[in-house]
Design goal:
Elements lengths: L9 E3 L6 E3 L14 E4 L6 H9 L5 H7 L16 E4 L2 H14 L2
Antiparallel strand pairs: 1-2, 3-4
Helix pairs in contact: 1-2
Length: 104
Amino acid sequence: MANRLNKIQVKTDLNTNIRYYKNIEYPPIPEDITDIYIISKSTDRLDLLVFDYYKNSQLWWIIGKANPDKIKRDSFFINPGLQIRIPSLSRVNTIYEEFRILNK
């Protein structure tokens, strides 16, 4: 599996030689009539769900950002029995393009 953080930019301060990472920004993902809703199971993880729906496990953040009140920012795991919103596949390119623009 590819490292989910492999595209984070690393900067080095030339004066102090200290390395730091550029902050990643995520676009808001408002609800849409085309969104899909599921009830989570004990075996669900963000990377597995996005692979099932989008065929790309690196887009895990889309489901996380679409469900900020239900999914912890520091975990791929989802508590079972929660209604989870999955933005429709038709919206993924637009969401990803917004992400790309925010993180130039």
